[in-house]
Structure formats: C-alpha cells, structure tokens
Amino acid sequence: MRVLVVATNATPKGLIDEVRVGRHQRVDYLELAQRFGTVHHDYNALRPNRLVQRIEDLCRCDMRQAMAVARLAKQGGYDAVLSLSERAGIPLALLLDQRIRHMVIFHHGMSRQKLRMIRALKLQQRWSVIAAISRAEADGMQAALGLDEGRVVALHTPVDVDFYRPSHASTGQEAFIQSLGLSHRDYPTLIRAMRRLPHIPCHLRVGSTWVTRRSNHKNEVLPPNITLQPFVPPATLRRCYEESRFIVVPIQASTQWSAGCTSVQAAQAMGKPVVATRRPGLSEYLIDGETGLLVEPGDERSMAEAIEALWNDTSRVIRMGRRAREWIASHHSLDQWLSRVEHLMTQTGKLVLAHSD
C-alpha cells in the first residue's frame, strides 16, 4: 500500500536538523512518512499567493493543497491518502479519486458549519476512516453525521515524551505558575482569577505555531502578579515548563472541544500538574484530581480556588506531577500514536485490496 501523507503547514527550513540535535520535538507527519516509506505534502509545495492564502485561512479550507494532492495521488499511483487535518481533508473529499482510500483527522469536528457542509455534500461517505482527537468528538461526529459505529474513531493527539522529559524532579516550590498558548484561550477568566491571588506570580506566554489571531488578554488590564513573556522555540519552551510550579490552560466554551490539548500534554510530560477548563474533549487529556484539576468555563472563582489550593500544597504538586508524567508516557506518546495510525491505515489498506479484487 502506497500512502501519501498530507501536512497542514509549511515545514520550516532546518527543522529536520533541529529534531536530530534535540532542539525540536519529533514531528508527526515526518515520522509517518518515514514509517510508511513515503513522502509528505505540505505548503512548501504550493506557489505563494498571499490573497488566496488569506481567503483559505479565513475559510479554514486548503483548496489549493487539496487540488495538488488529488493530482499527485492519482499520477503517483497512491492507494491511500492520510490528511492530518480537515483543512485539506474536507476539500479532498470532493476532489480525490474515489478509488483512493482516504483517512482524515478532524481537530474541530463539532464545528456546526463544518457538520452542515459535510451533511449537505454527503462527504462523510467519501472518507474511509474519520478520526477525531477525543472520544467525545468521535461520538458527537458519529451521531451528527448518522454514521455506523466504528466509522469514526478517537485518536488523541500525541506528545514526544522523549523531548518533553524533565531533567530533574520538581521541588513543588518553583517561584511562579505559567499559562501558554493562543488557540481558544480564555485569558480574561485567568486574569480575573489572578487578581484574587496577588501573592502568586504568573507568567503569561501568549503565542502559537498554528494560530495568528489576536489574543483576548489585550482587552484586560493585567494585575502586577502577571508578567507577559515572549513566545519561544520548543527547546526554550521546554525549560519554561520545567521552571513553573504548575501550568494553567484556560479555554473558552466553544465547539472546539479539545483546544489546549497540546499544552496540557506537554506540561504533564514535563512532570507538571495542570489546571484546565472542563471541556468535553480536553477533559480526556488529564485525570481530574490525579494529574490536574478541571474548572468550569468562565468561572474565575473556581479557577482561583484551584490555583491557590495547588500552590499551597507542595507535596500534592510533586505527587500529581509524577503521576502526570507516568500517565502521559504510558497513554499518549508519539510512538503509540504512530502505531495506532499505522494500524488504522493498514485496515484502510485491506479495504483497498478488497476494492481492487
């Protein structure tokens, strides 16, 4: 079976060297291409067009990439295509030769607009495998799209547990807490919570490799105990996790149920507990009361109480951090995820052979 891997980004120059020397975590689509002995297709293969790219970003739909992949898959004799997000996966459902099997990983599967479009165009029948990044989203998509059991699978995102590995044990007395990321963050609730906790220093590190939108923290007046920090590359980010007592991931109540999962996973891999917003998908990425604490969306009082309770309990921070590292390494490692994807594509490959016969 020949598999074409579709990445939803441009591969930065020198990334492979950065991974090799340990300054960047291993990259899912590069690892998949190596496992399948194939190539990946990313934005670097497209001719730059700022206007079209802006329209695609607004629509969250990579039509140019889908067109290029559809041509490449047919001309190159590929049996299957693996789309690592719906940005390419949705338009590919319309363009890809239906004899080529297609697996797509949905990161925002409960978007009402996407679900309406999929149902209207009957795209759900075009995918061999639909993967959602949480069990809650897999179940929600299956019900919303009227699919049989097993047509939508849960495929939690992975973390490179060798890269995100603590260099020393936490003391539970680190001098500050930290919140990181940009996608669907509810920084106003965190900021209001920190106003109730003037004795706890908090570093706010706003930024994302994937998202460019404006952060909502700019609408708030920051209290003295919150310090803005710059967005940093992975090797530095790893140190930021390690220097924090624990991590806070505040998320908006929206249809993107698993927003923040990458930060939650990396923090736990670094042996840090997490205080996070309770969302149907994100809740699956930690164990409430064991590796972190969940609070309701927009509840500044509960968030402040959770942060203070953890800040004041050194032994609990150490215990939860140790459990967090163990749990992430045993359930969400990149190698486990690669094997899971390989298994799903192998099942797709059996469908290919049956179809060919």
Can you describe this structure?
- The structure is a single chain.
- Mean pLDDT is 93; it is low at 209-213 and 351-357.
- The protein has helices spanning 15-20, 28-36, 50-59, 63-75, 86-95, 112-121, 135-145, 187-195, 234-243, 261-269, 300-311, 314-331, 334-356, and strands at residues 3-6, 40-41, 80-83, 101-106, 129-132, 152-154, 177-180, 202-205, 226-229, 247-249, 274-277, 292-295.
- The radius of gyration is 21 Å and the shape is globular.
- β4 (101-106), α6 and β5 (129-132) form a beta-alpha-beta unit.
- The protein has 357 residues and is α/β, with parallel strands linked by helices.
- The protein folds into 2 domains: 3-158 and 333-356, Glycogen Phosphorylase B (Rossmann fold, 3-Layer(aba) Sandwich), CATH 3.40.50; 177-331, Glycogen Phosphorylase B (Rossmann fold, 3-Layer(aba) Sandwich), CATH 3.40.50.2000.
- α4 (63-75) crosses α5 and α8 packs across α11 (300-311).
- It has 13 helices and 12 strands.
Topology:
Blueprint: E1 3-6, H1 15-20, H2 28-36, E2 40-41, H3 50-59, H4 63-75, E3 80-83, H5 86-95, E4 101-106, H6 112-121, E5 129-132, H7 135-145, E6 152-154, E7 177-180, H8 187-195, E8 202-205, E9 226-229, H9 234-243, E10 247-249, H10 261-269, E11 274-277, E12 292-295, H11 300-311, H12 314-331, H13 334-356
Parallel strand pairs: 1-2, 1-3, 3-4, 4-5, 5-6, 7-8, 8-9, 10-11, 11-12
Helix pairs in contact: 2-13, 4-5, 8-11
